Amino acid sequence: MVDIIRKQVIPGDVIVTGDYRPGSFVQRRGNDMVALRVGLAEVAQNGVKVIPLSGAYMPRAEDMVVGKVVNVTGYGWEADINSCFVGYLPGQFVFGRDFSPATHDLMTRFRVGDLLLAKIEAFDRTKDPQLSIRGPGLGKIPQGEIVRISPMKVPRLIGRKGYMINMIADLTACNVKVGQNGMIVVDGTPEGTEKAVAAINLVQEGAHMADLTARVQRLLGAPVTPEPAAEGDSGE
Amino acid sequence: MTEEKRRLIDENGIRTDGRRWDELRPLKIEVGVVKNADGSALIEWGKNKIIAAVYGPKEMHPKHLELADRAFLKCRYHMAPFSVEERKNPAPSRREIEISKVIREALQPALFLEDYPRTAIQVYVEVLQSDGGSRVAGVTASALALADAGINMRDLVVGCAVGKVDGKVVLDLNDIEDKEGSGDMPFTFMPNLNQVTLLQMDGLFTLDEFKQAVELGKAGGMKVYQAQREALLKRYFDGAAPDSSAPAAEMMEA
């Protein structure tokens, strides 16, 4: 295993000095690697990054998000994706390349208030994020309860290889759709939904706790089993 | 000139509130006090009680003011009507408008506004109880609120006022010294970058006094920075060691 050093940092802190590659939320100042956010800094062999503990959702291409349609324009839909930018879903992405506002009625597909599970197709500094619903499981979410959590806690809610979220879904028999923007839709029986929402809120409040999995299992009335080891826990 | 005025430093070098020339007033900082805000902080510094709340980055309204390449930083310093002995008219006064501007300019160098194009970041500084040095206390609290809101920052910003009382340069003026003293100098800086972001001066300082005041302000500011650090770490880590068992930032599909 690669040695990873973790450190609690606040903006302006020097994480480490030396020849490293500055990753997310890290700036190089001379030979110093400086944190730009409150969070946990990780120093690996070559790179340094900060895992922020607070902050709003900033769209990133390829992210899965849950959005709520807030406006239907002549050429597409605008969705609230829990960000400072409005997600835009163009008509072509739904009706195909021969989409024409004259022949297609956007209101037949999505109306204001509808929930979408979408992917961020493209986003840069100059334009609002573009959404797409092409892909398995993407599209309108017919029903469910929305829960909002901090977008920074979403990785913890999902867990290693989806362990935490699958566990919540299995134990409550609910269908849980997690957007990386911190919007979650829970669909199931009223009792199951209530339990799943409580579990999600517990993860949000206790994301830093070491025995979180056990706490969630206890909340959901399941036998407490340890989370699988970090083996194979790698990737970007 | 000053013979009829009351003395603000006695023969033992003790000031009106019992401090020596280089001592700060009692300081207490708490982060995350306003639930509805994206980031917030409360600072109690001497008799000052100030809440700073940050909202954003959010959509810019009115739209025509949005900036194509960076966020619009909006600051509002406001004194509550009950923050002073005689009721203060809640409408923004000349002084509050000026302080809003200098707070904005004191915070701006620390922020990566270019990371949030076309958005707005709002900073509200609400003075609940006022004492001397409320603008530097406001900047200190706002910097914490911005860090709490998760906005990319080069460094925190920390402030401390310095002044001239009875011909002597002293640290951290209280209200009486501010009003009856012969000069005051609010001073904010970024402690790690060692860069000044705000420096105002009221009254007359000789060049030597000015240099002495800046050094004193820096030393005082570093003490405030320690309190600021502790408050922020307490909010996020509560003194606990980093939890190495929690999964890393890897995003995993559900």
Short précis:
Chain A has 236 residues and is an alpha+beta fold. Chain A has five helices and 16 strands.
How would you sum up this structure, described in words?
The complex is a heterodimer of chains A (236) and B (254). By secondary structure, chain A is of the alpha+beta class. Chain A folds into three domains: 5-52, RNA polymerase II/Efflux pump adaptor protein, barrel-sandwich hybrid domain (OB fold (Dihydrolipoamide Acetyltransferase, E2P)), CATH 2.40.50.100; 64-141, OB fold (Dihydrolipoamide Acetyltransferase, E2P), CATH 2.40.50.140; 145-219, Ribosomal Protein S8, Chain: A, domain 1 (2-Layer Sandwich), CATH 3.30.1370.10. Helices cover 18% and strands 32% of the residues of chain A. In chain A, the strands form four sheets. In chain A, strands 8, 9, 10, 11, 12 and 13 form a six-stranded antiparallel beta sheet that branches. A four-stranded mixed beta sheet of chain A has the order 1-6-7-3, with no helix packed on it. In chain A, helix 3 (163-172) packs antiparallel against helix 4 and helix 4 runs antiparallel to helix 5. The two termini of chain A are 16 Å apart. Chain B has a single domain (27-237), classed as Ribosomal Protein S5, domain 2 (2-Layer Sandwich), CATH 3.30.230. In chain B, the strands form two sheets. A five-stranded mixed beta sheet of chain B has the order 1-2-3-5-4. In chain B, strands 6, 7, 8, 9 and 10 form a five-stranded antiparallel beta sheet that branches. In chain B, a hairpin with a 7-residue loop joins strand 1 and strand 2. In chain B, helix 1 packs across helix 2 (134-148). The chains are: A alpha+beta (236), B alpha+beta (254). Chains A and B meet through strand 1, strand 6, strand 7, helix 2 and strand 15 of A and strand 3 and helix 4 of B.
